Structure formats: structure tokens, C-alpha cells
Amino acid sequence: MPSRPTSSSPTSSHVTPSRPASAGTGGGSAAPGAEVPEEAVTPLVRGLAVLRRLTEADGAASLSGLERATGLARSTVDRITATLARMGYVRLDGRDAVLAPRLMELGNAYLAALRLPRLLDPHADALADALDESVSIAVCDRDGIRFVHQATRRRAMSLHFRIGDLLPAERTAPGPLFASEWNEEEWRRWRERRAADPEDRGFPAVPARSRPYEGGPDPAALPPSQRPTVGDDFEQRAAEAGRAGWALDDQLIEPGLVAVSMPVREAGRIACVVNVVSHTSRHSAAGLRDTLLPRLRAAVAEMERALDREPVPDLEEPAPERKAEPAPGGTRAGTGSARAGTGGVEGTEGAGDAETAGKAAAPSGLADWTGASEQELGRDFVESLARGLTVITAFGEGRAELTLTAVARATGLTRATARRALITLEHLGYVTTHDRVFRLTPRVLGLGFPPLSRISLPEIAAPHMTGLSQRLRDSVSLAVLTGTEIQYTGRVSTRSIMSVDVAVGTRLPAYATSLGRVILADLPEDRATELVAGSAPGDVPRRPAPDPERFRAELERVRKDGYALVEGELEQGLRSIAVPVRDRAGRTVAAVNVAMHSSRRTTEACVGDVLPELRATAAGIEADLHVAGRFRRVRTS
């Protein structure tokens, strides 16, 4: 079995000619001064630079802003963003580019290949519930750390780091534990980074490092270059953490934030670190250690047993190619994306895993999708960028380590094309290689995952609903069930003399609305009947409470047909039609509807014309929801 390095520092198994890095390539993710391999794919380097800049800008930036931030020509930025939009990774909103949920499939590929979230997240969630404190799981990324899971507590003062955020190792509790295993080369790289970036400006997720330590000589009396700063004792802390088996963060990131960490080991090496975070209003650093360390130690032991029960699988070749299936919703799911093939190798993870719009968008579909993209976008489509990003999605659960042949087979690319993409990704730190085997690094999470990891269902649905409203010229709403009522969580209204006027946050009896009936129909019959019976009399003016038997028959029809059509229940002349929005497990978590005055369309027109468009929109929302919700809970409101 090949060795499995825990660090994301590239190893050099490729001997290729190199050229100096230039601003024109936009390769800001490579090590300072690193030379760009001659075989690197320049459009891929530039496309990744654009995605990083969008991530640093919290998910949205103007095209002119991207031009300035990357140093690329405006025409290049336009072509790159057009290609990313075609892939469904960004949404073009006027002169702005906005990261789209489907971009998370790149980070999902890393998290699936890592396998730690699947095995350890439930343990972290249980620990957070038991301690009533925020719990995180962190992995090492060169001389920093990234969180791969967060179980946060809802408080006025709570943890606000996001999955994928990069933090300097010396300013965290997990950092010293990872550093206890560093070799001299890794320590040298850390020292060079500290010298080149004395205020941690390269870590936008944390405040600048400028607070001196308490005690010792007056910092103001020392020359600026000799003033102590947070992290100066990191090597000592790493040595102590290695001996003790745990580490503390006593307000190293910002005042008030304290944390205690312990490593989770696999095969004798640190696989990840579990981090419990609190505030000084609840615990001092020493109090956090004394109070929580025994329970943290017990949870870590459970996690290590979970890893032992499911060892890392041996290297395997991916399954043979399968024919691609069309994406639900066709080419207009509301995001401007027409992608049904790229990233499609996610579909090889297993039947029923709808990671992208196409459930099993396979390598054979990539060539067709590429051809269609070139025909639609012409010169604005950058094929080498799309191919390079597809290589990332070749990895996943059961495919943590792949040979070049396996990557080429999984993506449908030639070996030469896959090799150049892997060389580029390795140069930029997104891939490591050892003994001719490639694996993703945590740096992949830096491609959009932090801002997108906080996205909610209404935010996911908004562009899809806007597209539907513009096509139909009718109001579109999203709602969730709250007790016996529905609550509107998303809304796109039309501008007309007569339109449906309902504000976000409005609550209405579930039984009287198309949105509510669709959600009720997914519940067990007894539960749905109980909720309807619990509705207060007179909830709907001038309408009696529904007859239980007739309402059960109505819900059965909704289950069978997959939609609900309601006319005149809330107000005379108001007609609406709704369909469910389902999560990855197939549960109805919300509903989306189109509402109009009955004079606009007949009932037959609603079913024949509106329903197909509504179902396509729901499919687009679900596709994005399934990607966003694979390794995190998506808020429904």
C-alpha cells in the first residue's frame, strides 16, 4: 500500500523543464519564487487564480475587480468567468461574478476522499451537544490548518470560522499538535512564511497578528523587528504538545477566544485534530483544559476506534465508464449553467449519489458537453480550464489515491491531458504525488468552500426562482413548514398592476396553501392529520376547517401526482401550484410555488405550461442543495 502523507506539501516526482512564474499566469497559490513547470496549463492556473480571488472576496466580485486582483487582461477574465458559469461554478449577475453552490463539488471531492468527515462528524456533533460548546475537526495544510467540520453553538458570541478557512498554525490549538510531527523542511517553510508575512496578511480569516505578549520588556522600547508577537513561542508549544498529547489556544486569534485540542491518530500518525472552542466569559484556557479534557479524550478514543473499524482501502482503479444521464432541468436551472458533464465523475462514487445535476454524469458525457459548450460560447469557452477542474472531481470516496491512468479513465481525458492538469495542480499545491499515486490536498477547500459553506436554502433557491419568475412573469415563493403553518423564506415578485403580495416571513395555515399541502403530503399520514387538526378554527377567514377524510384524499392525490394546485382557498381569484424541494435523503424540506390571479391562466394551463417549468426549477434547486448539503447542514430559513 502506498504511504499516505498527512501534509499537503508537494513532493517532486515529475522532472520537467520550468519557467519563472509571471504575473500573467496569476499563479498566486504556488510557493513564493517557485518556477512554473513548462507543461503547466496556463488557463487552469489563471482560472484557479480567479476562483481564489472570488473566495477571498467572500464569494462575489466585479469583473473589473477580478481584473485588478489577478493582473489578468479583462478579456481573459471574461473568458474564464464565462467558462466557470457554463460549468455552474459561478453565476454572472450583470457585471459581477458570484460563486455558485455547485463549485462545492471540488471541496466535496477532497472531503469524500479524506473519509474523516463521514466517519468522525457524528462523534464531533455528539461531543458538541454533550459539552454545549463548539467543536471542530481540523487538518493540516502545509504551515496552516483548515477546518473540515464545524458543530457550532448558537450564542451571541460563538465560533465564526467556516469550513475550509485557512488559519496560521501558530495561532491555533491544533497547530502545535500537527507541528509536533513536522520535519526540518516543514519548519524551515514555516519560518520563511513568518518572516515574509509578519502580520499574517496572507490569512484573511484571522485578524492581523500585532498583539504583543504580556510580560517581558516593554515592546515599545524595542525596535519593530524585535518586538514579540503572537506565535513567537510556537516551536516551544509544539514540543510541549507533542509530549502532552493536547494543546491550548489562549486568545491567540483574538481576545476572548480559547480552545483545547487533541489529535486523532491513525496508524500512529495524526489524521486530524479535534478542537473545542469556548469564550473567556464561560471558561479560562486553564479551566477549559481541566473541565473538558477528560471528555475530549474519551471522544477522541471513540473516533480512533471508528477509524480502526474502517481502515483506509487499498488503491483501486475506478469503475469502467458509464453512459451519462441528462441533468434534470435541462440547460436552464436558473444559474445560467448548462453543464451536464463536467465534474460528472462525481457520479462514479456510487449509484444514487446526485452530486451534480446529472446523477451519473460520466466521462463519456464530457466530450459531448465540451462540444456543446464550444458551440454555445465559441472562443469564450476555455476547454483546458474545464478539463483541469474535472480532474479534481476524479477523486472521491474510495478514490483517495489515483494513478495517472485512473485519473484519465475516470475523466475520459487522454493520459497526456490528464498529466498536464495534474502537473499544474501539483505545482499550485492542490495535489500531491508519491510513488506515482496522486491525492488531493486540503488546499482544494480554498476554492470557494468557505463562503459557500454558510449558504442557506433561500440563498440557493433565489437565482433559480428569479429565472422562473422572469420566464413565466408570475410570482414565485419558497416556504418551509413551521408547526401547523408554512413560513415564506424566499420570494420573487413580479411588477404588475395586479400581483400576489406576500412578504418573506409571512405565515399561513399549511392546509390552505399549495406549498403546505406539498410538504404535508410527505409526512406520515397520522402526523399530517394531527397538524391539520391542530390548526386554529378561523385561521382562514370565511373558510371552514377542512373535512378530515376529504383532506386525506387530497394529500394522497398530491403524493401520487407530485404537485398541489390550490384555487381560492386563501383569497377568491388566487391560484397557485407547488412542488416539493427534497434533500439528499429524499425528504421534503421545503416547497416552491407559482402564484397568480386565476384570470392569467386556466387550471389546465397551470398543469400543462407552468408545472414543467416549476419542476425543472425545483430540480435545479435540489441539485445545488445536494452538493451544498453533502458534508454540512444547510439552513432551510
From TrEMBL:
GO process annotations (BP): 3,4-dihydroxybenzoate metabolic process; negative regulation of DNA-templated transcription; positive regulation of DNA-templated transcription
Region named Disordered: 1-37, 193-231, 304-365
Organism superkingdom: Bacteria
GO molecular function, one term: DNA binding
Compositionally biased intervals (Low complexity): 1-23, 326-340, 351-362
Pfam families: HTH_IclR, IclR_C
Location of the IclR-ED domain: 102-309, 443-627
Biased composition (Basic and acidic residues): 193-202
Comp. bias (Gly residues): 341-350
Protein name: Helix-turn-helix domain-containing protein
